[in-house]
Design goal:
The structure is a single chain. The chain is α+β, with helices and mostly antiparallel strands and 233 residues long. It folds into three domains: 86 residues, no CATH class; 66 residues, Rossmann fold (3-Layer(aba) Sandwich), CATH 3.40.50; 75 residues, no CATH class. It contains seven helices and eleven strands. The strands form four sheets. A four-stranded antiparallel sheet has the order 6-5-7-8, with helices on one face. A three-stranded mixed sheet has the order 9-10-11.
């Protein structure tokens, strides 16, 4: 099972403050409450950053585990559980009709509505990648139609831009299925966390939004040491 959250090393020390050093653990579904319970026993305050923005600081003794988690995820747990996995049937965002492309893609049709997540579950080599390449115009199509938000785009080459990293995404960029991607800057994130923690300890007011930086990468710069250092598999 893939970890829900992975915390690696944090070795920065501040005068008079004992910092975590060489702590490594993984969180999986169902383990969050257990970790929060331990957090309440070893901390005085909890500061939450979400999406690069300062959210809140609470006194550990005054906040329940559910309250801390609600601040982290941005809604009450009951609301999150009630809406999890339930897609609102909105307008059709993508529709593929009777797509044929090469020997593996034969008469493929599907509809994707706004608010839905579409996944293909097939055996290796059954044509999943070939369907995606045909839909995005990376490979020639023998017949069929592709519609995006009610506009027929068959015959056009769509430009696909990604976010983050990963082996499959980097492979897609190398193969020209994707033009490139925007990736976060882990080094910048770490520096901002350390700087923000130092300022908070001094009683300074933190900005509501903290820019941690990002990089654009494609086939032309993926091997640049500065870019490759922030990419991962």
């Amino acid at each position: 099972m893939n970890p829900l959250i992975s915390v690696t090393k944090f070795s920065k020390r501040f005068p008079g403050v004992r910092a975590l050093h060489d702590v490594q653990f993984e969180l999986r579904p169902g383990e969050v409450h257990a970790l929060m319970g331990k957090l309440k026993r070893i901390s005085d305050r909890v500061t939450v950053l979400r999406g690069g923005e300062y959210v809140a600081t609470v006194e550990t003794k005054d906040a329940s585990v559910d309250e801390i988690i609600s601040i982290m995820v941005g809604c009450k747990l009951a609301e999150a559980e009630a809406t999890h996995g339930v897609a609102q049937h909105g307008e059709i965002a993508l529709e593929v009709k009777h797509l044929n492309a090469g020997p593996l893609v034969r008469d493929v049709s599907f509809i994707l509505r706004k608010g839905e997540i579409l996944g293909f579950a097939v055996l290796m080599g059954a044509g999943r990648t070939e369907v995606a390449r045909a839909v995005f115009g990376a490979d020639p199509v023998d017949s069929g139609e592709t519609w995006v938000q009610g506009v027929k785009v068959s015959g056009r080459k769509l430009v696909l831009i990604g976010f983050g990293s990963g082996k499959e995404q980097k492979d897609d960029i190398h193969s020209s299925l994707m033009l490139g991607a925007i990736t976060q800057n882990p080094v910048g994130i770490g520096k901002c966390v350390v700087d923000s923690a130092a300022k908070a300890l001094k009683g300074e007011t933190l900005p509501k939004r903290i820019d941690t930086g990002f990089y654009w990468y494609d086939k032309s710069n993926m091997n640049d040491p500065k870019i490759s250092a922030v990419l991962y598999n």
